[in-house]
Every structure is written in C-alpha cells, then in structure tokens.
Amino acid sequence: MKMKKTAAITICFALTLALLAGAAPRTAAATAAKTKKAGIKSSVTIQRRSSYAAICEAVKKAKTNSQNTIYSSAASLNLAEKAADGTGTSAAPTDSRADASSDYSKTNTQVSGVDEGDVVKTDGRYIYALHDSRLLIFKADGTATAQVSSTALTGENDLKYASELYISGSRLIVVMSSYDYYLCNDVAMSDTAAARPDIGWPRRSETTVAVYDVSDPAAPKLMSTLGQDGSLLGTRLADGKLYVVSNYWVYSEVDQTKPGTFVPQLYRNGTASAMPAEKISMLPSPADASYAVVCAYDIGTAALSNSLSVLGSGSIIYMNAERLYLAEAKYGDNTSSPRTDGVYTVTDHNCSSTTQITRIGLKSMDVQSAGVVPGTLKDSYSMDELNGYLRVATTNNTYTYSIYADDKQGFENYKDGSQKTANALYVLDSGLNIVGRAENVAPGESIYSVRFDGVAAYICTFRQIDPLFAYDLSNPTRPVKLGELKLPGFSEYLHVWSAGRLFGLGQSATEEGSVTGMKLVMFDVSDKANVSVAKSLELGEGYSAALYDPHAILISPDRNLIGFPMDSGYALYSYADEGGFTKLATISGSADNWDYNMRGAYIGNFLYIVGNSSVTVIDLSSYATVASAAITD
Predict the structure, then answer these.
(1) Rounded-to-integer distance, Cα 607 and Cα 587, Å
(2) What CA–CA distance (Å, rounded) separates 331 from 354?
(3) What is the model's pTM?
(4) What is the tens place of the pLDDT at every residue in 83-109?
(5) What is the layout of strands, in order, in the sheet containing 599-603?
(6) Residue 410 region, left (φ>0) first, then alpha (ψ -120 to 50), else beta?
(7) Exposed, middle or buried, 231 (CB in 10 Å: 0-12/13-18/19+)?
(8) Which whole-number Å values give the CA distances from 7 to 3, 16, 480, in the listed order?
(9) DSSP string, 253-281
(10) Bridge partners for 307 per DSSP
(11) Which parts of the chain register pLDDT below 50?
C-alpha cells in the first residue's frame, strides 16, 4: 500500500491510544542497560522558570516539539526548587437558614471527604440543579416540593457552558467553560492555507467559577466571578477550597513583550492578570505548548487563594485531602536504524506510550515530584494513594509497522506489524519512583474499571470474558495477585458495597464478547483468593449514563438503595444476599423529561428525581410517585 511516512505515523498514533514500549526492567542494573540500549533518559529534572523571558523560550520550543518523546518507565523527575506556601483557608460560611435534614444523599465521589462537582446537588433542604445555562433551586418538601428560583448564569449571546456546581453552606459555586474560535465566514477554502492558516482552530478557552450567596434561595446573589485560562479538566472541593484544573493550549503567536500570549491568565470579575513566572514549572520535553493550570479558590472569601501552572498539561486528575495528581499520556514512535531489503530502505517503527504523573502538594501548592509509568490510565479511579504510595493501574499496548522506501522510484510502502495489549499495576513512592509492580495482567485485554479499597485493588478487564482480579498491596514493593474470576460481560464501575461485597455496574455479554445489555453484579470478595459472584441481575436494557459517569449513580449501602437513569426512565434497586437484586421502582416520565443528566437524591423518606422538565417525588416507604414539580425558566 502506497503511503507517505507522515501518514503512517499518524495511523500509528490513531491506533495506539494506550501504548507501551515494553515491560519495565525490575532492577536498577536492568534499567540502566535498557536505557542505554534505547537511547532514552532514565531521569530528568523539572525546571522552574524564574522569568517570563525563559518561559517564553520554553513555550516556543514546545510549540515545535513532536509527540515522539518517550521516557523510561523507571524515570524519576526531581524538582529544582519548591514553591512558597499558599495563603490560609477561610471556611465557607455556615447556613443560617432553618435546620436541614441530616439524612440526605451526597454526590457519589471517589475519595471520602473530597467532594466532586455535578449537575444536581442537595443540602438536605433544597435541591440545586443546572438546566440550560440556568441555576434552578427547589425547596425539597415532599408532596409540597416546589421551585423557588431560576437564575440565568450567562447572557443571551454568552458562549459559556455551565457544567457542574457545588453547595457549601450558604455558598453555591457554578463552574462554566467558554471557547472562542477563529471564524471562517466569507473565506474561500482555497485561500485558507495561505491567508489564514489558523482558521478552524480554537483561539482561546476559559474556565469560569461563579460564586453565589444562596442564604435566600429565592434570590441568589452573585458574589464574585473568578476564572483561569484553559478548558476544564476537573474540579474538587475540600477544606473550604475549590480546586480547579484546566488545560491551556498556547494557540496564538508568542510575543515576548506580552506575557498573556504565552502564559495562562487568571481572572477576577472580568479583569485579567498573567500568572506570575515563579508559579510556573516545566516538565521535560513537553509534547506541545500546553499548560495544566491549577487554581485554589477560597469559598468563604470568593477569591483566589493560590495557583500554579505546569508546562506539560494533564488529562486525568486524582485528589485526596493532601495532594493532587495530574496524569498525562505521552505517545511515542521509536524508529530503528534503516536496513536494506532488496530495493527498499526499511525503517521499523514501534509505537508506544507512557503516562507522566505530576504530584502537587495542596497546602503549599507546589510541584513535589513527577514520574512516568508504562501505559495509559482509563480514568481517575485508576489512581489511588495510601500511606504516601500512589497505586496506578494501566493498559499497555504496543503497535509496530515498517516503512519501505524505494528511493529510485520515489515512493514508500507501509507494512503492518504486530499489536500487543496487556495491563499492569504499579506502586510509586513519594518521589514517584516505581517501587512495586505486577505486569502482564490479562494479555490481549483492556482495563474497564478499577477500585482500590485500602490495601486491596480490584481490576476488571475485558475482551471476550470479564476477569476480575484481586490484588493485595499491603507490601507496596510486592503486589500479589490473590484471586481471579472470569465471567461473561464486564463491569464499567466498581463500588465497595460492604465488607466482603463489591458492587459492579456494567454490561452482560456472550462468551464471544457481544454485548447483550446492562447487568448488576455483587461480587463476594470476602475471600480474595476465591472471588465469586454472590448475585447478579441482567437488566435487558440498553444504556445508562452511570456506565461512564459515576456521578449519575445513587448508591447507598446504608439505605440499601441503588439508583441510576435508564433508557426507560430512572431505575431503583435494593440488594440482599438472600434474594439478590430487587427492583423497587422504575420511574418513567415523558420523553421531554428524560435525559442523560437525570439525577436521583434522597432526603429523609423521599426520593427526588431531577429530569429535564420536572422534579418527581417518590415516597420511599411505598415507592409511589407522590408529587411532581415542573421546571420553569
């Protein structure tokens, strides 16, 4: 097949979205030998830029870099210096309204004590929801439930998109995103490349945090509008501070005299200021000119508390009460020395990937260390920290191909090679050095879900059969596989239900790997060396937003409730070892009331289901619909 080299490389990257160059060596000597053979660095140093001029040069260089840099899986990236301590925290004001119920559901989150944003929240008395760029507030009062306010979050021609909210005492926070693109109206396609090569690319993106005082839910008051450059990557709320992470790409031309053209800007009530140079660090050889921008906003004062940027970007975040981790996949194409095959000059390519991880301390808001693991992560649940050790589950792929060049005839041929897939579990110390590993897990399959529970790790992979692996991580330097269970289908979300029980939400499948519908499964993990299925239930339904968004699932072992949106409405289940899963209710509504943002929340003895056109109230003693409050603008 005739193909240009650049096109072949593009195909390589398209086919290797979770790639790895090979298994990492197990000893320091092996690491050195592999590093020398591959010609790659085993360790590098993060550089903290001290001036805008130095940062500008780094950005210019990054804009010309290609994505073929790959690091050793044993690399440890050390800091040249630390950042100064951040400012203190001012706790969010308490709610001065009448006492709310203490028995209400929270957003399903990964880490206890660290809240995550969602489209619907409750404080036990009111329900807060995002709806078509408006903030809706409902008084949750059983059969007397009613909407009390509707607040426009954006102007009529504003391109901001409200994506998530938080409620903390009398403060409500809305996180919004906006994008600005180069326009191509009245520009001929033939003239685009020569006249405006940047047409069709984003010009800038911004993440906005709007802080409201909802002491009076009927009349929310905007306190402050804060923001940062970049598209939203993720948020977390802990200890009175909202942590916002965005990815900022430098699309524009760099002007050394204008820092705003090459460093992220921060915003307060519309006023922009360039991030200080001392707040910016750079990872080694960034693939492009992109920053991970991390800002801490004090909810009590509605102001910026601290910030930093890392030139090198990120794609997945994990945060606990002390640290934030950024993970960014790095794709590489390693080439061999040319060889001769008949009339052809042949170059062999090995496409692979690693994930670069950056560890950030929240108290001082500084980059503490960075390191690299083989493979790529599925989501934030693929990371977890315990006792200072970061545990990471990755899927590792390699893809090879060869370019046959006939220099005399002036053409190139592309020859496909091999593709291999396996998975791994890595344990990293505080310096993000790999100190423990379990590799070659489920060759030929990919990770679909991960859950860490103390010293235990559960990994679900899938290709045709769904294996659930149980690992013991009590010794960080020696992960041990305790058990393995194979059954048709796969779990896309895992949740620790109780001691010895692990809940899985996923899809059933034939032994040949064909998906047949959703299923619920309760794993018996009381004996991790002999994992089994306690009970399972095939739903025969097509899809749920909870399969890809854990915020969409209402899960409460204490109340024995499992709820999530379905194609037919909102489904509610309970579980018991004796009888398995029991459907309590399916709350179906009109077509205009259903969407993937449907959420369920309980307060006391009522369940409130927030749809697209109404809030439906369910009595949890009878599971009957007792009220419906219409959504109005």
Answers:
(1) 11
(2) 7
(3) 0.86
(4) 333 444 455 566 545 556 689 999 999
(5) 599-603, 606-610, 614-619, 624-630
(6) left
(7) middle
(8) 7, 14, 43
(9) PP-TT-GGGTS-EEEETTEEEEPPGGGEE
(10) 295
(11) 1-44, 66-89, 96, 185-199
